[in-house]
């Protein structure tokens, strides 16, 4: 025995037809009435027959022009502003012997951060002292030759050579002193030095513990100080949402629990390149952080606000149905007459949807029962 199989779409259409016709009304009609459905459908238009009302009522809502829907919130990370951040490195290889700060401490420019013991410092100091000693020696030679020249016991050429050697000694001493000065350290005895803060601010990174080997070959600084009056919020935005973002637009910052604390920032840049791993577009938001509520490395939620001058047509989300290939709404063109329109849908929320084309502001769309009208067209088709 072979069973016939009906497609889900055909079954749904049949159910829709019953609802449109009215189950109770069909029981009291003549055979001629039963053969005539209470609606007509031609191409994209469904017209209800007012003489045979069914139990299904269609609600309509006016399409309105208004602000675009905000982008969905994006999880982002707080970071420091590069121009307000100053790293400190260990310029001479050695071992950490003392820490004068902890992560989060506030420091002034030039404050001592980390003490390092090294064997390279005595060598540099020896070079400087040797150069200073050479200056005294060469100076004494020049003075002696000057007296000999006055007594005609030495030539002018010998004096010129001695003065040249004195100049070389002075240059060597200057270079030795500049070499130590360029390290931006403060010596602590013959074999130790302090790494100093290069600016005032907060210690936002610390990579030093007593006994750790440090030096100029490290892949990151041993300490970083940043001014947190301004911070960056780094967000990875979906590619489809990136075109709507432009530098200068406002973004609202909230904590992960969704609490709004009155923090807003300005989009500083929208990357022209897609992140190859996340397949997202990096966006930088500059935020004024006077209250120090945003801390580096914290995660926050970013809400990108729509531009004030932009308007889009909005309809209830329930008005949007699909015919399988495209999105559809039904527009009420007259009492009881509904026209199918293919539309381009923008962003959607649970209650509203943006319609970028296909519907004009002021037109009334079916907000309840649109799927029944779509199935009525399928039945007649």
Automatic annotation (TrEMBL):
<feature type="domain" description="CusB-like beta-barrel">
    <location>
        <begin position="233"/>
        <end position="305"/>
    </location>
</feature>
<feature type="coiled-coil region">
    <location>
        <begin position="145"/>
        <end position="172"/>
    </location>
</feature>
<feature type="region of interest" description="Disordered">
    <location>
        <begin position="49"/>
        <end position="71"/>
    </location>
</feature>
<keyword id="KW-0175">Coiled coil</keyword>
<keyword id="KW-0813">Transport</keyword>
<feature type="signal peptide">
    <location>
        <begin position="1"/>
        <end position="25"/>
    </location>
</feature>
<dbReference type="InterPro" id="IPR051909">
    <property type="entry name" value="MFP_Cation_Efflux"/>
</dbReference>
<protein>
    <submittedName>
        <fullName>Efflux RND transporter periplasmic adaptor subunit</fullName>
    </submittedName>
</protein>
<dbReference type="Pfam" id="PF25954">
    <property type="entry name" value="Beta-barrel_RND_2"/>
</dbReference>
<dbReference type="InterPro" id="IPR058792">
    <property type="entry name" value="Beta-barrel_RND_2"/>
</dbReference>
<dbReference type="InterPro" id="IPR006143">
    <property type="entry name" value="RND_pump_MFP"/>
</dbReference>
<keyword id="KW-0732">Signal</keyword>
<dbReference type="Pfam" id="PF25975">
    <property type="entry name" value="CzcB_C"/>
</dbReference>
<comment type="similarity">
    <text>Belongs to the membrane fusion protein (MFP) (TC 8.A.1) family.</text>
</comment>
<feature type="domain" description="CzcB-like C-terminal circularly permuted SH3-like">
    <location>
        <begin position="313"/>
        <end position="371"/>
    </location>
</feature>
<dbReference type="InterPro" id="IPR058649">
    <property type="entry name" value="CzcB_C"/>
</dbReference>
């Amino acid at each position: 025995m072979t069973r016939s199989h009906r497609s889900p779409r055909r079954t749904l259409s049949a159910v829709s037809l019953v609802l449109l016709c009215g189950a109770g009304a069909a029981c009291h009609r003549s055979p001629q009435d039963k053969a005539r459905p209470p609606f007509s459908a031609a191409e994209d238009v469904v017209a209800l027959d007012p003489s045979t009302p069914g139990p299904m009522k269609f609600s309509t809502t006016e399409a309105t022009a208004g602000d675009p829907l905000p982008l969905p919130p994006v999880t982002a990370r707080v970071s420091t502003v590069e121009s307000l951040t100053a790293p400190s490195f260990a310029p001479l290889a050695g071992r950490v012997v003392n820490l004068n700060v902890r992560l989060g401490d506030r420091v002034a420019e030039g404050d001592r951060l980390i003490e390092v013991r090294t064997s390279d410092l005595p060598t540099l100091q020896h070079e400087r002292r040797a150069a200073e000693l050479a200056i005294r020696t060469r100076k004494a030679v020049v003075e002696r030759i000057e007296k000999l020249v006055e007594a005609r016991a030495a030539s002018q050429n010998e004096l010129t050579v001695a003065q040249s050697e004195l100049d070389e000694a002075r240059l060597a001493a200057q270079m030795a002193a500049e070499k130590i000065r360029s390290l931006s350290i403060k010596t602590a005895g013959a074999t130790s030095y302090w790494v100093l803060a290069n600016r005032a601010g907060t210690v936002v990174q610390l990579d030093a513990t007593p006994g750790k080997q440090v030096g100029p070959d490290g892949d990151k600084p041993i300490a970083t100080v940043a001014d947190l009056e301004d911070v960056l919020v780094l967000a990875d935005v979906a590619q489809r949402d990136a075109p709507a973002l432009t530098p200068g637009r406002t973004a609202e910052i909230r904590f992960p629990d969704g609490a709004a604390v009155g923090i807003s920032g300005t989009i500083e840049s929208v990357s022209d390149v897609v992140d190859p791993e996340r397949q997202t577009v990096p966006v930088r938001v500059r935020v004024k952080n006077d209250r120090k509520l945003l801390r580096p490395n914290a995660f926050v939620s970013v809400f990108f606000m729509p531009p004030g001058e932009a308007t889009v047509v909005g309809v209830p989300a329930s008005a949007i149905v699909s015919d399988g290939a495209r999105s559809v709404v039904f527009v009420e063109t007259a009492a009881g007459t509904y026209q199918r329109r293919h539309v381009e849908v923008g962003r959607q929320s649970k209650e509203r949807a943006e319609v970028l084309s296909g519907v004009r502001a002021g037109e009334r769309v079916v907000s309840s029962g649109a799927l029944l009208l779509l199935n009525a067209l399928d039945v007649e088709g």
